[in-house]
Protein 1
Amino acid sequence: MGVLNDPIYRPLSITFIEYREGDKLGFILAWFSMLPFIYIVSLCTLIIFRRDVQTIMYFGGFCVSEVCNYALKRFFKQARPERTRDRMGLYEVHGMPSDHAQTFFYFMTYLAIFVILKSQMPGSPHIRSIRNRVLVFTQLIVAVIVAYSRVYLHYHTVAQVVVGAFFGTALGCGWYYFVNYHFMQYASLITDHPLGKYFLIRDYSLIPRLIHFQYENEYAEAKRWRERRANYAKDQNIMLSGRGAVSNSNDNNTNSNQRRQWSEGIMSTDKSIRLYRDDDRQLIQNLVNEYLLAGSNNVLELIRRCPTECFEENLLFDYR
């Protein structure tokens, strides 16, 4: 096959960023130019783990921004700077408005409004006010650097990044207003829908001090499981000792006191063990009585008779 017959390969222009060799500032700005994509990946990760309506709609605004940018570039049809224009096979033809500037200004505007109006970080009102101002100022500086990187690297003109920043800011304000003052009123329709429940979609918008709420509940749950694990071996030894008390007796007519002790060895040998629900308490008690009357001392066989879900859902014993 000759060279002329080889297929033509093109880079994915949206992530194809070049800088002049030896230009340290250009190298740094090239990484700043990648921030929108890093931010998008981080946002997708956050959606996967949080699955809350607010974050999903935040990402939805980015999708709207991309559609608008595509339409605006076809409307203005303004070429890119001359250096990039000479390598048009590597980049999209149109440059007005800058997609990077529009996307990142949308993200930063929406986030800045959210921080100002709904931030619930710990600290006094004065400390929160200072923290919010620092966060908003930092977001603004980063957005400006991202926009400047597109001009410095000759991917866009100043006018193209300014127009992109304007549309991104306008979309951030408008989308925040739409989501928080209109759409979130119907968030319960999503969370209560069978599909919403299947995908574990949540709405955190009405929970005050969300960070504290999540921390306190997750800390308490983790502590409870640590205590369960610590008591597990002790509780098993108590149950087996109850079985041993019966196995040492060869008399099928064991007195009621011994039977009661063995029953208690399974049902409530320690105050740290309690049955979770009344119906399961009755179920296990009936099984214990059945085995006592039969003179059986096989605790493992008794446990196998219990429903599997009693163990899988912690319905047999709750270690506190």
Protein 2
Amino acid sequence: MNSEFEFAETKPPLSAMGHVVESIGIDTDTQGKCRVCSGRITDRYMIRIDSRVYHEGCVRCCVCDAQLQEKCYEKEGQLYCSAHYFKDCSPYRCSGCKLGISPTDMVYKLKTGMVFHVDCHACIRCGRRLAPGEQILVDEIAQTVACMQHFYNAILGCSVL
């Protein structure tokens, strides 16, 4: 889920309202507690992502610990930077490296539906990167590709010039 930061200015509660709230036993902590450190948020600004609030400094990627500035991604309560969200959580996976594919990645998409990062579109036998339009052998079960030279060597027992 892509969440834009919402900066909310914190304001002290109205004193009359505070007395009413205290008298009926409702939590008077209108500032909220940071989801990461559980500390009370008394700063001028806090960050709200969905229904949870955070100190600005506590909004960090759960993988690389980078402070998230403009954009963050959330999955199952964990916050991610863009790079790690797509690497770890993307529903689209490279058939070569099995890592996630981000919207900005250059890829090869085969007619079979298999998708490869440009650097991962390589022969499973020799590792040579395969060119667009090059004739290749596709193994849909193993999710691999091979150049025709290795196809002929392995399957037919002969070599192609």
